[in-house]
Amino acid sequence: MVQYSIEELHALLISGQIHFKEYYEELFKEIEYQQNRLNAFVTITKNETILNLKKKDFVNMLCGIPYVLKDNYSTKGIKTTASSRMLENYIPVYNAHVVDLLNKQGACLVGKASMDEFAMGSTNQTALTGPVYNPWDRTRIAGGSSGGSAALVASGVVPFSLGSDTGDSIRKPAGFCGVVGFKPTWGRISRYGVIPYASSLDHVGAFTRNVRDMAIVMETLAGHDERDMTSSIKEVPQYLDCLDENIKGIRIAVLKTVSDEVENSIIQDNFNRVVNVLEELGAIVENITMPIELLKAVLPTYTILANSEATSNLACLDGIKYGHRRDGKTIEDTVIHSRTHGFSHQIKSRLILGNLALAYENQERMFMKAQKVRRLIVEELNKIYQSYDIILTPNSGIIAPKVKQVDNQYTYESTILENHLILGNLAGLPSLSLPSGFVDGMPIAVHLMGRIFEEQTVLNVAYALENILGLKNQYSREG
Ligand code: GLN
Prior knowledge:
Blueprint: H1 6-14, H2 20-38, E1 41-44, E2 66-70, H3 97-105, E3 108-113, E4 133-134, E5 137-141, H4 147-154, E6 160-165, H5 171-177, E7 180-183, E8 203-208, H6 211-221, E9 251-255, H7 256-259, H8 265-280, E10 284-288, H9 292-313, H10 331-342, H11 345-358, H12 364-387, E11 390-394, H13 416-419, H14 423-426, E12 431-439, E13 442-450, H15 455-469
Parallel strand pairs: 2-3, 2-6, 9-10, 9-11
Antiparallel strand pairs: 1-3, 4-5, 6-8, 7-8, 7-12, 11-13, 12-13
Helix pairs in contact: 6-15, 9-11, 9-12
The structure holds glutamine (GLN).
């Protein structure tokens, strides 16, 4: 089966060069094949109404385009499990805002993708339905927590998918799977109907196989929604029409405190090449540093804030108001049994940590202190953005680890290099990971982070780079 980008498939559908129904029959065979290979779906949705689309409907760019959603997006009438036993049988009665937007365009949901349970994790090894494998090499992880969404774009099944990103959960798996991953500014896209993890850090975002497709998806999803009080009223630019590969004079800061940590020489050479390409394209590239103590504080700060917010967000999952129920003799017993059985060990340990940080006697020195450190980190970043448009770093210092190497714990590494992506969440900055090369047949990537609401600059720099690096529309069906 041919793996098309959004733009290619749109052109073929509107000109009638491919037959929609036949395309979908082929696609569902492909989905079955890839599900056996990757285990990336929680639910496959064979939506028959899509077969009634007419040629004239295809004027909308996303009409007839197949896509998948991470399984934390509420879908009316379709199971939404967040890959947890707690929501194993949950069928929402409403759609997330972005799902309504995509439906309006005629985009075709073909399934709900596996994720780390409640989006907590970096490996996609913690899903109730089992691990997700990397399409380039199935002995390796796809990364998480949006691993299913990344793997299904990287294997060519769909040209785009949605994920969510609280610490790195779109950009990390995008880098490991060789696709473009982008989370725009906090507040740029409504999160209404997305099962929350940590509200001050959660972002809706997407995976595509090229930057133009990303501009299309972002333009469709961005904008105000009165049902999400954190969504911005700022006007949405026409990201696709405004894409511009002329990046002369754009000011790019190479964050050496992170990039100097790379030990793998091929990843280091690849990063240097990207820096050279940017200079050749006329960007002004300069080296900068950040205080190492602040970068070392990123993970602990995030851990306290994310787990505290999760504790509050997941409190309603008690078997009485919502979620998996195990009856006990008293109401309290029922809550205890339901939560004990519904959440896996790693979620429970995070909730214990969150409760600890929020406890009256600890609040000041844990939760409040983490908020203060977050402020210091954001102020440091703001200083950098007074002089630069983009902060450039390697996406990660490693290729996707082997499944055997990672346990089901919180993360597999706790170095600055593996955790700097969290900066984009602490400060809510538009952040994109772009494929930049290969090491031992596995994709690697660079990471671009822009000023708030300057998605266009991030997309433009990525677009210019992509044109030179020649890594667009990659996928792997056989690895
Ligand atoms: N790995 C981080 C965590 O486990 C980030 C997860 C995410 O972005 N959803 O919290």
